[in-house]
User: What shape does this take?
Amino acid sequence: MEFVEQLKSSVDIVRTIGEYVRLKKAGGSSRYTGLCPFHNEKTPSFSVNPIHQRFKCFGCGVGGDVIEFIMQIDRLTFFEALKLLAERNGIAMPKREYADADSRLRAALLEMHEMAAALFQSNLSGTGGADARAYLAGRGVPQEDLDTFALGLSDSGGQQLFRRIDQTRFPPEVLEQSGLVMKRQEGGGFYDRFRGRLMFPIHDHSGKTIAFGGRALRAGDEPKYLNSPETRLYHKTYVLYNLHRAKDAIRKLDYSILVEGYMDVIGVYSAGIRNVVASCGTALTNTQVRTLKQHSERIVVNFDPDAAGSNATEKYMQLLLDEGMTVRVLELDRNLDPDEYIKELGVDAYRARLEKAPSYFHWLADRARKKFDIHTVEGRIQGFKFVAPSIERVPDRLERFAIANDIAGYLGVDAHMVRDHFSRNQKAANRPASRGPVVPPNERLLLNSLLASELARMQVIPHLSEMSVIERFTTRNVFRAIFTLHHDQVSFRFSDLEGRLEDADRDLLSAVVFADDIIEEQDALAQAVACLESLRAQEPKSEMAELRARVQTAEREGNLEEALRLADELNRRSRR
Ligand code: CTP
Ligand code: MN
Assistant: This one.
């Protein structure tokens, strides 16, 4: 496992995780914090410690090293995570080790998707692609967008891709799992899934082709869109179309735009608005929302006009709110989807609409204004009640009240009514996230200084391991493990220490390592010695205190013999 250690030590964990999570340096500490990408939260409990090269979320409990982070966030195998980190950091992988069957399957599928994308692209630019090119030109998609989005065309014969794929390298069971070709019901053999369709490659966030959407070119061809099935590469519920191109802009502008279709993304993006994504022909899922949230908490949802106000839309908005997103709604008029709107009215008109897009609650209130007679008190109250259930679901209490007051003002409803309504509906109040176990400060400091310096361990552990106060520590098992490691070996590795601990003790260790103590290596010895001294001062006293407590317990339990014996002992000691 030498390579793994070498890789971990040459990868900057803060930079790596920073690609996925917006990290801020925690004040006065070497740690970085941010919103956990693995669960939904409003206040950051996710923490990265560059000294120990670990991450940890005190909300949901996930934690580990940089490889484990990549495995979890990108849903990769150990080998794939290694490979990805090595590639991104320009480190050569040793050839022999690591490849397991699953990684080999994924690698084969990726290669097949590469081949397919290239083939589709060359079809579109070749002689057979004239009609498709004309169709795209007719829809106002310029040549450069064909390249940007790597659009392609699948051959209508149903054999081209299958023949192109090297049968000797990809056995039938792998072909079947690619989703690109399908097995014939009778007679054996395969045929292409996509035939005579305009092909939209779908990428993962790092830009690898993992699936396709295929649009019919002739009116009446059903279905209009045919998409790749779920494969080992493609999990629809995780993927957002165009995310790898949009994510930098989403961060920079601090919001994303969610549209419905591939063509909408292409229309909006190529008009120069880059922070746009779509879900790929499925209802939006919470994993997709969390992915977006890693880049920005703010989102503008651009519905197709007929969708606004439908049940599906309602669910969809609720999902965004439940994940703690700040949502605005862009509803285009004249029954146009974003792509059509930009083509007809121009990008400036679209941009203006985008900038003016109301918050979800104001948008709902506007709908309430249309639904109820806002000129009467009754109507205003009904209007507010129409919006209130959504406001109640805002997780953050202060924000909930602020929004409620704002919307009440907007609808002309008395603030008293708002307060009444919300005090009767307290069930939505949210509980603060657990911050993990608490370790007493002296134990924390001592542990952190021991972890920070070999010298501190050498000097202090021999004394420390003799002392009985350790047994009363919350973190006694962590100390024991450090003593054992120190005793057994010269080089001291954090991962070895973790490996010796049960879950509960590992959580304690995390709490220690992610506390805000900054102990530089050169100060660690002095700090450890100071801790040792103060423990020494405590030690006899605390032993006496314990004896005293045991006397009291024995008395309370009516065990007088034991109480007397302990009291004797106590006397003897206090005379010493
Ligand atoms: N979709 C799908 N299967 C269908 C229809 C639609 O997967 N049978 C998905 C596609 O991702 C599509 C999106 O839903 O992009 C939106 O559908 P629609 O508005 O019909 O398509 P547009 O992207 O607007 O395409 P076009 O403008 O070419 O009609
Ligand atoms: Mn459209």
